[in-house]
From TrEMBL:
<feature type="signal peptide">
    <location>
        <begin position="1"/>
        <end position="21"/>
    </location>
</feature>
<keyword id="KW-0732">Signal</keyword>
<feature type="domain" description="Calcineurin-like phosphoesterase">
    <location>
        <begin position="30"/>
        <end position="278"/>
    </location>
</feature>
<keyword id="KW-1133">Transmembrane helix</keyword>
<feature type="transmembrane region" description="Helical">
    <location>
        <begin position="380"/>
        <end position="402"/>
    </location>
</feature>
<dbReference type="GO" id="GO:0005737">
    <property type="term" value="C:cytoplasm"/>
</dbReference>
<dbReference type="InterPro" id="IPR029052">
    <property type="entry name" value="Metallo-depent_PP-like"/>
</dbReference>
<dbReference type="Pfam" id="PF00149">
    <property type="entry name" value="Metallophos"/>
</dbReference>
<keyword id="KW-0812">Transmembrane</keyword>
<dbReference type="InterPro" id="IPR004843">
    <property type="entry name" value="Calcineurin-like_PHP"/>
</dbReference>
<protein>
    <submittedName>
        <fullName>Metallophosphoesterase</fullName>
    </submittedName>
</protein>
<dbReference type="GO" id="GO:0016788">
    <property type="term" value="F:hydrolase activity, acting on ester bonds"/>
</dbReference>
<keyword id="KW-0472">Membrane</keyword>
Length: 433
C-alpha cells in the first residue's frame, strides 16, 4: 500500500511538477536537440561513449531543450542477476529507488544535469522491458529531474504513459503561448488490439490530442513519437521530397490510428521519431514534415554508414514547424545539413512490416504478443524461485554449520569430562616451598 501511495505521489509530480517554462529567446528562436535511441545498459564502454557524445553535443549546440525520444535504456539487457533484485523491488512497499533501470537513467541524464539544460522524454518500445513499468519510468523521470525535467506521466486513463504537451511562451515575461510540443507514447508491440507488427498511438490517445488541441489556442506545433506513424513509409515510398538517408525499412505499425489527420487539422506540422536506427531522413507529406532523429547511442545496432549524433531543430516564433531549420550534429563535432535524396531511393516498401523477429515467424504474432506479456511475470516468478533456492541453501548451510558447531562443543565437553575424571583419580602433588 505504501509503495502504491509513493507511486501515486510521484505520478502527481509528473503531471503537476514545478519545472521551468520554455520560452522563445529575445530573438524569437528556440533550439531543440533530439537525442534518440541511447540504448543504455548493454555495455559499460558503450554507455561511456554515449555520455561523451552528449557532453560534446550539448556545449556545441547550447540547446534550450533536449528531447529524449525513446529507447533511452535497452530494457532487454537487464542482467539475470538483477532478477532477484527485481523481486525485492516488487515486494518493497516503501521505495521505487535502486532499480537497474534507475542506474542507467541516472547515467544518461547526468550530462543534461551537468549542462543545466531542460529536457523532456517519451518512451520507446524497450523502455518498459526492464524492472520498471512504463508509468514507473515516467515517475522516475519526475522524481530525479529536479527543475530540469518537463516530462509528464499524462492521464492514467489513456493507453501508454507519458502523453502530454509543453507550451512555449513568447519572449520576455509574456504569458502568450507561441508554440506547442506534443509528447506521445507509441507503446511496444501490437497495435490497437492487433497482435502483429509494431505498436502505435492508441486511438484513445489520438482522440485525446484532438479534444485537447480543439480547446487550446492554435499555435505552430510539433510532436515526438518514438515509433514512426505509417505516413513515414508512405511519404518515402511515394517519392515525396526528402533529405537524409534510409538504411532500413520503416518499422511502423500496421494500423493507421488517425494521428496524421489530426496533426494536419490542428497545425502539428512536424512529427519526429526514432526507433529505426539506420534511418535519419526527413520527408514532407501534405504540408507535414516527417523526420527521424539521428541514432545517438552506442548501444544497439546502427546507424548505417553514418556517424552517431543528434538532430537539431530550430523553431522560429510564428514560423510553420514544417519549415523549421534542422541539421545533424555528429559525434566528431561536425554540423551536417542533410542533402536531397537521389533517385532511385532505397528501401521503398508497400506498407509497414507485419513480422519482426524469430518468435513471430515460428509461433505467429498473436502467440508472441502473449508471451511478451507473460515475460515480466515469468521473470518475476523465476527470480522468486531463485531467491527461495538461495534462501534454502543459506538455511541448509546454517543448519550444517550449527550441527558442526554443536558436535565440536560436545566433543570439547567430552574431553573436559575425561580430563576432570583423570585429575580426580590422580591428584597433582602439593607444591613444595
Amino acid at each position: 500500500m505504501r509503495r502504491q501511495r509513493a507511486l501515486r505521489a510521484l505520478l502527481w509530480l509528473a503531471v503537476a511538477g514545478g519545472a521551468q517554462a520554455l520560452r522563445f529567446s529575445s530573438k524569437g528562436s528556440l533550439k531543440v536537440v533530439q537525442a534518440t535511441d541511447l540504448h543504455f545498459g548493454e555495455a559499460a564502454e558503450a554507455d561511456a561513449a554515449t555520455v561523451k557524445l552528449l557532453r560534446d553535443v550539448l556545449p556545441a549546440e547550447q540547446p534550450d531543450l533536449v528531447v529524449l525520444s525513446g529507447d533511452q535504456v535497452s530494457g532487454y539487457a537487464i542482467p539475470a542477476a538483477n532478477l532477484v533484485e527485481r523481486v525485492r523491488l516488487r515486494l518493497d512497499t516503501t521505495s521505487l529507488s535502486g532499480s537497474w533501470y534507475e542506474q542507467q537513467w541516472r547515467q544518461l541524464t547526468a550530462p543534461l544535469h551537468e549542462a543545466g539544460v531542460p529536457y523532456a522524454s517519451i518512451l520507446g518500445n524497450h523502455d518498459g522491458e526492464a524492472d520498471l513499468s512504463r508509468r514507473e519510468v515516467m515517475a522516475l523521470d519526475a522524481a530525479t529531474g529536479s527543475s530540469l525535467s518537463l516530462s509528464r506521466a499524462g492521464p492514467a486513463s489513456l493507453s501508454g504513459a507519458g502523453n502530454y504537451w509543453v507550451d512555449v511562451l513568447a519572449p520576455g515575461n509574456s504569458t502568450q503561448v507561441a508554440a506547442r510540443l506534443w509528447f506521445l507514447d507509441s507503446g511496444n508491440r501490437g497495435c490497437n488490439g492487433g497482435a502483429a507488427g509494431w505498436s502505435c498511438l492508441g486511438r484513445d490517445v489520438v482522440e485525446w490530442v484532438r479534444q485537447q488541441a480543439a480547446l487550446l489556442p492554435r499555435v505552430p506545433s510539433l510532436a515526438f513519437v518514438h515509433i514512426p506513424i505509417p505516413q513515414f513509409s508512405e511519404a518515402w515510398s511515394s517519392g515525396a521530397p526528402a533529405n537524409g538517408t534510409k538504411g532500413e525499412e520503416t518499422g511502423c505499425p500496421l494500423a493507421d490510428t488517425g494521428f496524421f489527420a489530426v496533426a494536419k487539422e490542428f497545425g502539428i506540422h512536424a512529427i519526429y521519431s526514432g526507433h529505426d536506427h539506420d534511418n535519419d531522413f526527413a520527408v514532407e507529406l501534405e504540408g507535414v514534415r516527417l523526420a527521424y532523429g539521428r541514432k545517438t547511442g552506442f548501444g544497439g545496432y546502427g546507424p548505417f554508414n553514418v556517424q552517431r549524433g543528434a538532430r537539431v531543430i530550430e523553431l522560429r516564433m510564428g514560423e510553420d514547424t514544417a519549415q523549421s531549420a534542422t541539421w545533424i550534429r555528429q559525434q566528431d563535432g561536425t554540423r551536417v545539413v542533410q542533402q536531397p535524396v537521389q533517385e532511385p531511393r532505397p528501401h521503398r516498401q508497400a506498407g509497414c512490416p507485419s513480422i519482426e523477429g524469430r518468435c513471430d515467424k515460428l509461433l505467429g504474432p498473436k502467440a508472441c504478443l502473449t508471451l511478451r506479456g507473460w515475460r515480466n511475470g515469468a521473470e518475476a516468478v523465476g527470480a522468486l524461485l531463485a531467491s527461495l533456492a538461495v534462501l534454502s541453501l543459506t538455511v541448509i548451510a546454517g543448519l550444517v554449520a550449527s550441527r558442526h558447531a554443536l558436535q565440536h562443543l560436545r566433543h570439547r565437553r567430552g574431553w573436559r569430562k575425561l580430563e576432570g575424571a583423570a585429575a580426580a583419580k590422580h591428584p597433582a602433588p602439593d607444591s613444595q616451598v
